[in-house]
Amino acid sequence: MLSKISDGAVIAAIISAVVSIVVLAGQKKQNKKLIKANVIVQQRIEWIGKVRELTAEYITEISKINSILYFLLKAVDADNEEEYRKIMNEFIQTRNKSNVLFLRLCLYLNNEEEHSDLINLMCEFQRELIKLIQYENEIEMLNPSYICEYSFDTDILQTNIVEKIRNYLKIEWERVKEEVK
Q1: pLDDT tens digits for 27-38?
Q2: By the 8 A CB rule, do 112 and 119 touch?
Q3: Rounded Cα gap, residues 173 and 181, in angstroms
Q4: Other beta carbons within 10 Å of 2
Q5: Residue 160 pLDDT exceeds 80
Q6: Cβ neighbours of residue 111 under 8 Å, at least 6 residues apart?
Q7: Of 54, 155, 172, 179, which is most buried, counting CB atoms within 10 Å of its CB?
Q8: CA 27 to CA 171: how far, in whole Å?
Q9: Coil, strand, or helix at residue 111?
């Protein structure tokens, strides 16, 4: 009888151990899923913040363009070549910085179809800035009519970029909230 109780106790202990192992394996698998989900959610949140930061920097840079062109026009009108060169250099630096920010944003916005309107909008603006710089290099000093022709309405551009980024980030934030559930 003692051996029957011992056999029963051993069988119960084995069953208990097997159940515990199965439960632990399930918990381990669930914990891995939770950790992975938390990492993904955290990365998305950081990504959203970085896109916001880059967008704000880009908009800050492009908003300088009209002011620079205004002062460039003043320098041409005053026939002040030294001031013109100084302002043109600032224009080129602003264009270069805005281009770097544009390219960084493009790397964050990797779905070409989904972001094509936004990317095309910024790309066209960058092309126009390059045309102005190339024209200036060809003739050595821009004339007032050419500067006026290339005065950009950066307010509309900024509004369009902000609207498109805001909509996209809202979609991404909804995705993060869904993944947390």
Answers
A1: 877 777 777 777
A2: yes
A3: 13
A4: 6
A5: yes
A6: none
A7: 54
A8: 32
A9: coil
